[in-house]
Write a structure and sequence with these properties.
Blueprint lengths: L1 H17 L14 H21 L3 H9 L4 E7 L2 E6 L1 E6 L3 E6 L1 H5 L3 E2 L2 E3 L10 E4 L5 E2 L2 E2 L4 H26 L9 H22 L3 H23 L13 H17 L3 H8 L13 H41 L5 H44 L4 H6 L1
Antiparallel strand pairs: 1-2, 3-4, 3-9, 5-6, 6-7, 7-8
Helix pairs in contact: 1-2, 3-10, 5-7, 6-7, 6-11, 7-11, 8-10, 8-11, 10-11
């Protein structure tokens, strides 16, 4: 009888593992080890299923807005469609190395001593190697990453647009008809930025700075728009990368301070304020000099933060669909409808933001350049 009881108990455990959890929802009888074991197996299975169905929101969001050594296109079943990009690094111990990022996956994540630093590492997501002491170090990395490739593609698109417009005007005879279609749209766009922003903010010397400011506007605008396109070659978060906005702000910083007039520098180091604000403690000169660096910093952060937050908001709204999948059809259905509607609204809003951020960056750069071009009182009277 004892052996028969053990056999029956074992069969119940096996059957319990195959039946839905609701079959054993009742409370176990005290002292009944069979029912207790069944419940533990069911709870364990539910936990595994919940973990398997969890959506990695952080991974999705930061995977999109971050940079990478490959360009992920889509998934077909369990197959990931990616474009491998060239990794170009210089190691102090082994010199130059150049290979496609797909080599890392083909060789178990490591190739020629290099690998992608895992999560939690100091250099997470970057190509690293180990030195003689076993310490994880970064080589000199000039790889063509996703953001870099997108930068090249968007710059090529910008060049194609501008050169086609310039070619049309070179062929047009003097006094010919006004352009229409795409050329007419671009003329309206260019003249709006040139007359309403550059000419009015910079002042009499606007022609010297118009090429840079027009380039900055259309460069930012094209990258912003391409970042909203979800399929290749769009989707890369170029202007949401702080390295890109830093370089743009540095260009403005250099132009403002190299072409600044004597009056501009005089107002920084000896402004027209009461003497006790300048001596013996140079309070105002310090504030003015500090402002030289805060202006480009504001340009950098404004563009970076606005574009980054827009991408993150849309991705989080999209993830709501998958997060709510386990909450039942009613909640999942309502959140799906809300997510789709909010995403449509956010995409339309981001198109407007793409233009506004390019406009604001150009306008502020023009204002800073114009302030650096101001002359003294005598020059102002002469004008």
């Amino acid at each position: 009888m004892k052996q028969l009881r053990n056999i029956v108990a074992g069969m119940l455990v096996l059957i319990g593992g195959m039946l839905p959890a609701t079959t054993f929802a009742q409370e176990p009888v005290p002292g009944d080890t069979t029912a207790t074991l069944q419940q533990e197996i069911i709870v364990g299975k539910d936990t595994i299923n919940q973990e398997a169905n969890q959506v990695d929101v952080k991974g999705i969001v930061f995977g999109h807005i971050g940079d990478s050594y490959e360009w992920h296109i889509t998934n077909i079943g369990k197959t990931s469609i990616c474009i491998p990009l060239p990794i170009i690094v210089y190691s102090e111990t082994s010199g130059w190395h150049a290979f496609l990022s797909s080599r890392l996956e083909e060789n178990g994540g490591k190739y020629e001593g290099f690998y992608i630093a895992p999560a939690g590492s100091k250099y997470e997501g970057k190509v690293v190697e180990r030195n003689a002491t076993g310490e994880e170090v970064r080589p000199w990395d000039i790889s063509i990453t996703k953001v870099t490739l997108s930068l090249f593609i968007n710059s090529a698109i910008l060049l194609a647009i501008i050169l086609s417009v310039a070619h049309w005007y070179r062929k047009r005879e003097q006094g010919a008809y006004a352009p229409g279609g795409f050329i007419g749209f671009m003329e309206m766009f260019i003249m709006m930025v040139h007359d309403d922003v550059i000419k009015s903010c910079v002042g009499p010397n606007y022609k010297k700075f118009a090429p840079y400011l027009l380039t900055a506007f259309f460069f930012i605008f094209i990258n912003n728009i391409m970042g909203l396109i979800p399929i290749f070659p769009g989707g890369a978060n170029v202007t949401g990368n702080i390295a890109i906005t830093l370089v743009l702000a540095l260009f403005t910083f250099v132009i403002v301070n190299i072409f600044g007039t004597k009056h501009y520098w005089k107002d920084i180091f000896w402004p027209d304020v009461p003497w006790w604000l300048k001596v013996p403690i140079p309070m105002m000169p310090f504030i003015e000099f500090f402002g030289v660096f805060t202006k480009p910093f504001a340009l950098m952060i404004r563009l970076f933060a606005n574009m980054l937050s827009g991408h993150m908001a849309m991705l989080v709204l999209t993830c709501l669909i998958f997060i709510s999948a386990s909450m039942g059809p009613a909640i999942n259905g309502s959140l799906t409808v809300a997510s789709v509607l909010f995403n449509i609204f956010m995409n339309l809003l981001e198109v407007l933001v793409a233009f506004i951020q390019a406009y604001v960056f150009t306008m502020l750069s023009a204002v800073f350049i114009g302030l650096a071009q101001e002359g003294g009182k005598k020059e102002e009277v002469k004008e």
